[in-house]
Amino acid sequence: MLGEKLESKPSAIILHSFKMATTVSNLSVAMSKPKVPPFQRFANVGPAVLGGRFKVRSWDTFASVSHCTSVQPFQKDPRLCARKFDRNVIKAMSESSSDKQVAGLPIDLKGKRAFIAGVADDNGYGWAIAKSLAAAGAEILVGTWVPALNIFESSLRRGKFDESRKLQDGSLMEITKVYPLDAVFDNPEEVPEDVKTNKRYAGASNWTVQEVAESVKKDFGTIDILVHSLANGPEVSKPLSETSRKGYLAAISASSYSYVSLLKHFLPIINPDGSSISLTYIASERIIPGYGGGMSSAKAALESDTRVLAFEAGRKKKIRVNTISAGPLGSRAAKAIGFIDMMIDYSFTNAPLQKELHAEEVGNTAAFLASPLASAITGAVIYVDNGLNAMGVGVDSSVFKDLDIPKGHH
Asked: What highest taxon heads this organism's lineage (predicted)?
């Protein structure tokens, strides 16, 4: 996926994260006499509420639209239709809201804990996912590629990320703990000597997948949400037919099997009804020239593994497993493949929705998938790419120059 961490070293795995805070729960629907003016009112809701603002109309407006047929589930007395309920209103209320404002549909992750593997800066989908989860109330833990750990933690301490940590309510996303992680190694016995002695790993410990899972268990006991937001293809710039066996297997190891390993080691500490999410890219099923080195194969494997893992984790612990196929994002990591700006332009020109794709849109999708609102969704590939995945051709081709193709107004 164009927006994850892609490093130049085969072992370069990077990790992302976020945090939000919202306070809406126990949504109920009630009928009441309006102590409010009959004209339209708006109730502001928190940043993690679907729909943003919820419009309340007077009952006569509602009844005229529904012709009173939708009233039947609420009241079976047909005389109420003629009286229009005396201008009653339907109000969506939060029982915990003292002012009884309309709450909308909340994404509430308060009391949940998330571990996001793949956060090493404040630019990319991992960071956006962490931020959205935090805004919904989740506690945030992140795993950061070992060679990037010092600069990431230093930037956090020095306030370099403060602006991008801001949530919609003005507070800052808090990251409870940052763990060193290199997800291409399952346990210490697998780490080769040249990596152990590499100065970029000096001073770090307990950074293999097994050790990180054990550390999280020791520190916090359990988690509820696991996010895999990391990838690496050391030969990503090479065509597949020119990719070496070593480069191909490195892409699979870092970008696909790393997810299998993470879920394997974290599954024992994920609470029942939890959620696991990864990031993929349309190159798994469509030809994207330039996205080589086995990365397209790795993404295809990741999507296949998502379905199998959904079955296994679902049967074992009622854990939901999904992946988000995100469109191109101009993150620092995506710059490594060299043509990200061209892909962003192509997407803008050819996607059904002609607009820029924002990282927070992927983050908000992850928050939804992690929430009880997605309790029946598992084994799915969720596309967040302005609809580009639905296109069979590029409409910017000269072949279509004489067609009257609608263009967006900007």
From this structure: Eukaryota
